Amino acid sequence: MERFRAGDLAGVRAGKGPRLLLAHPIVFSKAFWALDLFAERFEVAAFDQRGHGESPAEGIDLDTMADDIGRVLDHLGWERAVVGGTSLGAATTLRFAMRHPERVTLLVQDLPGFGPGSHRDAERTGRMTEAFATGDLDEAARRTVEGLSPHRAKAWEAALRSDWGNYEAASIGPKIAAALRGTAGWRIVERWPDDLAHLAVPTSILALDGDPAHPYDVARTMARTIPDAKLIPRVPSLSPAAIARQWMEVIHGR
Questions:
Q1: Given Cys at both, which of 54, 171, 225, 251 links 196, Cβ 3.0 to 4.6 Å?
Q2: What distance in Å separates the CA atoms of residue 252 and residue 20, rounded to the nearest whole number?
Q3: Helix or strand or coil: residue 207?
Q4: Whether pTM exceeds 0.85
Q5: Domains of the chain, CATH where assigned
């Protein structure tokens, strides 16, 4: 595993094969991904989006973070690659692909959640943000899983703690708070969903029915509007290995 910095963005890369760039969901980091599994089939890279991991909290706006995809590709020397992300990562990679389709061989949208706007619960997000801002990750984890079933809450807490354990709480807490605040009002396209019809990139969309933060209708609308798009049931798991296996199947299936 090779660590790198693309300007002020921290990343890791590994493996050989077709090129794949991954963008993580909000409140996670590059550690979200099972890069060792991806590296068995791909030359893969993942990076910390602004407000996460070892990257800064400055510049948390949609166009800057979409441009970051290009900055990382440039640093790696990749003219083109499979590009995709989960949740927040789906938003930034979609925006990048719409602006630079020539650099994306396949776009993977895993749990897209923004659509015409964010579907986060504002009150719950505010409570999460307060906890992150103080660096109290235990409280932040508790507030993040509020309202989930015991089984899902346990899985979420395990995934969060596994990711956050790679960083200093005093550093990442305030950065994640800034990311939550800075991304709340994002609109990926001006005219939803009409502008998506201009996306000239093969697209695979992974979605779960019944996820309020990532409404299935958003994914279904995207699949109906984007030319050469496929809608695929998403594996109902936070396991990095399970996610990696499904992504690899999806990519090789295109």
A1: 225
A2: 12
A3: strand
A4: yes
A5: 2-119+186-253 (3.40.50.1820)
